[in-house]
Structures are given as structure tokens and as C-alpha cells.
Design brief:
The complex is a heterodimer of chains A (about 130) and B (about 200). With about 130 residues, chain A is α/β, with parallel strands linked by helices. Chain A is built from five helices and five strands. In chain A, helix 3 links the parallel strand 3 and strand 4. By secondary structure, chain B is mainly α. Chain B has eight helices and no strands. The chains are: A alpha/beta (about 130), B mainly alpha (about 200). Chain A: Keywords: Phosphoprotein.
């Protein structure tokens, strides 16, 4: 697992961005950028080089699922590992995310070990 | 009938119009109809006075705005408190480098647990957002009922609902956190994802 991977975290709750950033720091990921919705995230992804996206679902003006679809439809971004971290825990949400190409799915509230395990899994298979 | 006439008044006017037309000798059927219409008129008048006694205007003028303001304050205060806790955690993390061995490990583990616990603020905020949305829906419906009895100036319910904008799949499926036991656990999600591989 490459700890130098550039990670983009996307959430409309600033507190949640801070928590995920600090947990990533504990996992020794220091190259972390933030976005507060799908549109801002897409702009940053298109402008930069990211090796991992960790996104919430429920955001405006673009949801995490819609961001995921945009990423998978973009020729340059389509292979970027994408982890959804969300309170949306219905089976239909997981199925829709999988159909859209999500790399892994974490339901809130989550613990650091779950986050570490999912990141390791998606970066190993990237 | 004037367009702006309230629903309750329209019913009363219709009853009076029908009663006015039933003059002179009446058949048994017409007499029965007259009795039913008079009873209907009394029911409408009683319903109007009961609604007035309920002071439904207070619901929209005071109760619901106060409730939503209180809930907004809960979200704001928990966010402030959570960020103060995170400030403290970051100070503790800075001190961790001065420790060694088990002490450093214990401090790091405790800080991680605090970070994990602080995610309650996100879930709480989303749950309160759902409650506020429900309150606003009730507010619109109360306004419509008040209007139909000529006590408010708001438009009928059908006109108050915002036009439905096209929604993406992501928006359609955004329901927020489920109640305990109603959602899918992380272990079940992992099994579901594995079943696609």
C-alpha cells in the first residue's frame, strides 16, 4: 500500500472531513485534499492527480453516487479507486454504488480499522 | 362563486343555495334532503369553530419555527463541541511523539477512538435534518388546511408544493441514516460486495 498516494476526501460536513483527514494521518497518508461536494471534487480530480477518492453520498449540488458515475465515465479518471463512506445503509444503495463501479463501501459510523482495511484492499488491487 | 372564497365558506354557500331552492311544497325525499343539508351546514360550522379553538395559526407562526430553530441550535452546538474535542485530540497527537513504547501506543489508540466517536456529529446532523424536513412538510399542510377554512392567506397545498425538479439516481437514493436495525451492517455490505466478485 503506497502511503504517498494522493487522496481526495469529499464530504459536506467539515467535521467529518477533519475526522477522516486525521484518521488518514494516523495511517500515514499525508497527501490529502478536501472537497465539500461532488462538483468541487470533480473539478479537483480533473485538475490534479489522485490515486484514491473517499466520498460521502448525501451532498449537494452533486451526490457521491453521481460523482462516482462522472469519474467512471471520464477516460482519464475511470480507474481511480473510489471508496464510498456514507450513512446510506440500504441494500439498494450498495447495489447502485456497485453497479456504478464503487471500489468499496463503508457505512457510517465506522472505525479506523475498517477504513484501513478497505484502503489497503482497493490500493492493493488498483 | 369567487375564486378566492375559502373552502368552508364555499360549502356553506352551496348548502344555502340548495336550501333556498327548496321552497314551497316538498316531497318526502326533498324534506329528507333538506334535513341532511341542514345537518351538513351545522357540521361545517362546528368544524370551523373547532379549528378556530385549536389556534392552528400558532403551529406555523410559532411552534414549528421554534422547533426548527432549536434543532438547528442542537446541530450548531454539537458541531462546536465536536471541533473543540478534535482540537484537543490534535494537541494530544502532538504530545504523542514525546512518549515512547506502550505509552505512545495507548495515547494513539485513545485518540483514534475519540475520532471514531466524533463521527456521531455527522449522523446526528443528518437525522435532525430529516426531522426538520418533516416539520416543514407539516407546516405546508397546516397552511393549506388553514387556507381552506378562510383563516390564512397562503395558497392551496397543490400550488405550494415546489415543482418537482428532475432528480438523479444519487438524489433519489439519498435517504440519510436508517434507524438502528433497519439498515445493512458493514459485515452484510462486505458479503454483498463479495457476491459480485
Amino acid at each position: 500500500m503506497d502511503k504517498n498516494t494522493n487522496v481526495l476526501i469529499v464530504d459536506d460536513y467539515k467535521t467529518m472531513l477533519r475526522i477522516i483527514r486525521n484518521l488518514l494521518k494516523q495511517l500515514e497518508f499525508d497527501n490529502v485534499e478536501e472537497a465539500s461536494d461532488g462538483q468541487e471534487a470533480l473539478a479537483k480530480l480533473r485538475a490534479g492527480q489522485f490515486g484514491l477518492v473517499i466520498s460521502d453520498w448525501n451532498m449537494q449540488p452533486m451526490t457521491g453516487l453521481d460523482l462516482l458515475k462522472e469519474v467512471r465515465a471520464d477516460a482519464r479518471l475511470k480507474d481511480t479507486p473510489f471508496i464510498m463512506i456514507t450513512a446510506e445503509s440500504k441494500t439498494e444503495n450498495v447495489v447502485a454504488a456497485k453497479a456504478a463501479g464503487v471500489s468499496n463501501y463503508i457505512v457510517k459510523p465506522f472505525n479506523a480499522e475498517t477504513l484501513r482495511g478497505k484502503i489497503e484492499k482497493v490500493l492493493t488491487h488498483a | 362563486m369567487p375564486d378566492g372564497q375559502a373552502g368552508g365558506d364555499r360549502i356553506e354557500a352551496a348548502v344555502r343555495a340548495v336550501l333556498g331552492s327548496l321552497s314551497g311544497d316538498m316531497t318526502v325525499t326533498e324534506a329528507a334532503l333538506l334535513g341532511e343539508l341542514e345537518a351538513l351546514g351545522r357540521e361545517v360550522a362546528r368544524a370551523k369553530s373547532e379549528i378556530a379553538a385549536l389556534r392552528v395559526d400558532d403551529i406555523n407562526a410559532s411552534h414549528i419555527p421554534t422547533a426548527t430553530d432549536e434543532l438547528d441550535a442542537v446541530v450548531s452546538h454539537t458541531a462546536t463541541a465536536t471541533n473543540e474535542i478534535l482540537d484537543c485530540c490534535e494537541v494530544l497527537e502532538g504530545l504523542q511523539s514525546r512518549l515512547a513504547g506502550e505509552d505512545a501506543e495507548a495515547l494513539g489508540g485513545a485518540v483514534t477512538r475519540i475520532y471514531e466517536a466524533c463521527s456521531f456529529q455527522d449522523i446526528t446532523g443528518q437525522r435532525i435534518g430529516k426531522v426538520v424536513s418533516a416539520l416543514k412538510s407539516i407546516e405546508r399542510r397546516v397552511a393549506a388546511v388553514t387556507q381552506s377554512f378562510g383563516r390564512g392567506e397562503s395558497a392551496p397545498l397543490a400550488e405550494q408544493e415546489e415543482p418537482a425538479a428532475p432528480r438523479t439516481e444519487g438524489e433519489e437514493l439519498a435517504n440519510g441514516p436508517q434507524l438502528p436495525g433497519a439498515g445493512t451492517s458493514q459485515a452484510e455490505i462486505d458479503r454483498l460486495l463479495a457476491s459480485f466478485d
